[in-house]
Write a structure and sequence with these properties.
The protein is mostly helical and about 210 residues long. Helix content is about 75%, strand content about 5%. The termini are far apart. It comes from Sphingomonas sinipercae.
Length: about 210
Amino acid sequence: MSEFVVRTISAVVMVSVAICALFLGGYWFAVFVAAAATAVFYEWTRLTKGWGAGWYISGFAYSLLAALALLWLRDRADSGLWLVVWAFIIVWATDIGAYLVGRSIGGPKLAPAISPGKTWAGFYGGVAAATILSGAWVLVMQLHWILILVAPLFSVVAQGGDLFESWIKRRAGVKDSGRLLPGHGGAFDRLDGLLPVAILTALISFAGVA
């Protein structure tokens, strides 16, 4: 079985599980989020082993804040379920758009010293895809219009989270954060963009902006 097929099957399974847990809510979503956050933190500690207590504490805080943000959005925020879906769309559309456009166009590298495969074309493709698809979701679900304006920024944040994780892996001298997900590496590899996006989405909702 080719790597592309493995990646595709794994992606479909992961998305299906995430969506099912999200819509079930309650205990199911809490367990799903807790498991994901625990896996991210575990991989973070393996990557940053020997870097000092500050990295351990920051990894714990980062994964915990993202988990709490998702749980708060799902159960406490107005239109929380649809906001979480919006955050998912931002991250997934960014990843897919960046991959497809980057592979199709190529061109100048975005951050060759950190992640040689990423290009500026992919960067803009990811922002465009996230803005269009999340904007459509906002209109269909009648969410706050401000989400359309912040979508490009959140897409940039998602790609920043990806680059941050790539920098950690490069410093640690590894290709993937783990081997939990066939064809995708570890949990941190798949959730690197969602972590900051979830936190920011909860913040703008808590502040009453969206």
